[in-house]
Write a structure and sequence with these properties.
Structural class: alpha/beta
CATH superfamily of the largest domain: Periplasmic binding protein-like II
Number of domains: 2
CATH architecture of the largest domain: 3-Layer(aba) Sandwich
Largest sheet: 6 strands, mixed
Number of helices: 13
CATH topology of the largest domain: D-Maltodextrin-Binding Protein, domain 2
Oligomer: single chain
């Protein structure tokens, strides 16, 4: 092994084990682009675990929920690319029987984590005071079908990732699409997740890695077939058509760059969360510049 390889700066990367994140990171994971002085080591971990780990700053580059970012702005700066934005769609609440949004505050709801943006959006939609049980995101549909989790009753479930496309396979009913609700409230897309770079990397490295992440996303979009084949390994039962649909929902122009409207959406999300007493401090998001 050459000394040039040995001396490369290790960048530990964390992202979710789902098709859209895998698609974004395909080029970096499979050495499809030149990374200069950096070597990337990938960890695929569920988003709530990544949110919690970010408090310790374990990863130089990590995906996190924008809800979690409200508590991490001292450690991480938000990449301008890599966003997961729901433009008139997003996390959904499902149940076994038809149910109205007005009924949800009295229900016990399975949620994928309290730092997820989905949880923040649900609190904004129905109020802070409802019963919930935290369940791994990929078990929520099964838990709603079963009606309980570890002895706790479950009446409905807050669904993220590919379950947004597959809940009907279990004859579950849509109660609310939080991306639709948010758009009706604000006229903006719902910013769900982002990638963050640890501030102590320094400005030059932050700019370099942000650029490489954008190159990776662009490579996937330019080589969609091969990137989608790689990403489909994390589809948890999605057929090719639905995997393609899901990736298209969350890897798009918003993902290449938040843009002014995307940045406005993040600012609005954090401001509303604070105004409702869910987020303790008013956070103005800081993006890589």
């Amino acid at each position: 092994m050459s000394s040039a390889v040995v001396s490369k700066h290790l960048i530990k990367v964390g992202h979710s084990p789902d098709p859209d994140d895998a698609f974004m990171f395909y080029a970096l994971a499979k050495d499809k682009i030149e990374t200069g002085p950096y070597r990337f080591e990938h960890e695929l971990v569920d988003i709530e675990t990544l949110n919690r780990r970010a408090f310790a700053g374990e990863l130089e580059l990590t995906a996190f929920s924008l809800h979690a970012y409200a508590y991490l702005s001292d450690k991480y700066v938000v990449c301008t690319c890599g966003a997961s934005m729901g433009d008139k769609y997003g996390p959904i609440v499902v149940s076994k029987r038809p149910m109205t949004v007005a009924e949800l505050p009295a229900m016990s709801i399975a949620v994928p984590g309290t730092l997820t943006t989905a949880f923040l959006a649900l609190q904004m939609c129905i109020g802070k005071n409802f019963r919930y049980v935290v369940v791994p995101f990929d078990e929520i549909l099964n838990v709603v079908v079963a009606g309980h989790y570890r002895g706790e009753p479950v009446d409905a479930g807050l669904v993220i990732h590919e379950g947004q496309l597959t809940y009907g396979d279990d004859q579950l009913k849509l109660v609310v699409d939080l991306g639709v609700w948010w758009y009706e409230e604000t006229g903006l897309p719902l910013p769900l997740g982002a990638n963050g770079l640890r501030k102590d990397l320094g400005r030059d490295a932050i700019l370099d890695i942000n650029r490489l992440l954008k190159e990776s996303i662009q490579y996937g979009l330019d080589h969609r077939t091969e990137a989608l084949e790689y990403a489909s390994a994390w589809g948890r039962g999605l057929d090719h058509r639905k995997a393609d649909q899901f990736v298209g929902m969350y890897v798009n122009d918003w993902t290449l760059d938040f843009g002014p409207r995307g940045r406005q959406a993040v600012t609005e999300l954090l401001a509303r969360g604070h105004a409702l007493g869910i987020i303790p401090k008013l956070i103005v998001p800081e993006f890589v510049e």
